[in-house]
Amino acid sequence: MNAKIYEYDTKVYRTKITITAIFCAFILVYSLFSIFTTNVPALWVVAAVVAGYFVWETFVSIANPSKVEVSDQGITFSAYHKSHHYDWNEVKRFKCKPLASGTKMFVRINEAGIFRGRYWVNCYYFNDGNELFQYLFHKEVEIDPEGLKARAVRGSEETKSIKRGRARRK
């Protein structure tokens, strides 16, 4: 497979991720100031933690990538001129948790931490998003063939073949 690049819709990314993160940065600064100057510092501590977390996830750990590149050699998540690359032969753990919408998934690679390894991939806004969703889902099954998701896929395939066999006999 040649490298395939999936990119987030630029306008949507700017609105949903970048502008929100910039707004949170302002809230973080205001909250830090308000902690020391108001009568309700606990409220501002909570606001600072929430805003700081979003700013960190967006600009430091690039947990919301604007670009995902996949190839036979590895996968790369990129945003804001930063990239995290993982060679498939070095990936020991690859977990994808699809969310209820069926278009967004939380991807964890190896020992995910606060600096890298955790990514929110909203496939709905990526070009060829369904293809990306299927690729990530099946990559987990490929990397962890004894995992719960792989067993569920095998069980589903076995059930389908049994049903097809019954239908042929009728």
UniProtKB/TrEMBL annotation:
It comes from the Bacteria. The chain crosses the membrane at residues 12-36, 42-63. This is PH domain-containing protein. Keywords: Membrane, Transmembrane, Transmembrane helix.
